[in-house]
Write a structure and sequence with these properties.
With 121 residues, this protein is an all-alpha fold. It contains 3 helices and no strands.
Length: 121
């Protein structure tokens, strides 16, 4: 896995852990208590912070997914080039050659060699 992708995953893990802890504290604070106006404002700020962290996690996940997709595309493209790159020389029509013409020349060359000649016609 790419170093940058691992860093993104580490950031996601860290933010998710912080978010989980904060939400746990918030839930305990809210259970069975009536809150003053000041406490309600503090809780609203904490929830805003939690929402921002959640948004950061979503952005990091999108970056990771984009990076993974581009890396997979590069790997499959490289694998495809490895599979076909060297073999393409042996395929009919390589470098603009006419496969049928080459076959005919090969046959004529074989016949000329059998007849004692050595020229193409």
């Amino acid at each position: 896995m790419a170093k940058n992708a691992q860093q993104i995953l580490n950031q996601i893990t860290q933010l998710a852990g912080q978010l989980q802890q904060q939400e746990s504290v918030n839930a305990q604070t809210l259970q069975g208590q009536e809150l003053s106006a000041q406490q309600q404002q503090q809780m609203a700020q904490l929830e805003d912070t939690a929402a921002q962290k959640l948004q950061q996690i979503q952005q990091l996940l999108q970056q990771y997914q984009q990076q993974s997709q581009s890396q997979q595309g590069f790997q499959s493209s490289a694998a495809s080039n490895q599979m076909t790159g060297t073999q393409s020389v042996f395929q009919p029509g390589f470098a603009g050659t006419n496969a049928e013409e080459v076959r005919q020349q090969n046959q004529q060359s074989a016949q000329n060699a059998n007849d004692g000649g050595n020229t193409f016609s």
